[in-house]
Amino acid sequence: MRWWDIEPVLRLEHGLFPEDAWSPGMFWSELAHARGPGATRHYIVAETGAPGSSRIVGYAGLAVAGGLGDVQTIAVAREQWGTGLGARLLTDLLQHATASECDEVLLEVRVDNTRAQKLYERFGFEPIGFRRGYYQPGNIDALVMRLCVRDAGTPDAPSGAPADGHVQGTDNHG
User: Fold this and answer.
1) What digits encode the pLDDT tens for the residues 107-117?
2) CA distances from 133 to 16, 84, 128, 140 (A)
3) Residue 103: its H or E element
4) What is the model's pTM?
5) N or C, where is the chain less crowded by C-beta within 10 Å?
């Protein structure tokens, strides 16, 4: 993800998470830590369509520090649900966590988002606790999940992602 992706990412963010969408400043702050030799963030976008007329249909981000990875966000456009795109995005994040020598990866997911929970379970994430009222302003609890990367390895992306969709990261986008 690069700065020019923020506007279309925000449109997707607000469409998917209207009550607790990230602000532009949150994305700018994350991207500020995604470049250079000391980068602690890894953000990617997934696009579909022909070059020059492509459209962002998903994005994901990971923070890494001290052997720990934390999935900051992952989102897929509704019309792409069930295509394997979420799995491809998560695979990219986990590959980056492995390359960054993370021992484990954590994430929070809304307790009412069973679709995402099932995806994370397929990758070996296990529930380890709750964060009460984590998602505001709806006061929705978060389920905290953990994957021990050293034990699980990095799963391969399941097939079924759109043939014309591709994932671009901070190091190879544009």
Assistant:
1) 999 999 999 99
2) 19, 30, 16, 5
3) none
4) 0.83
5) C
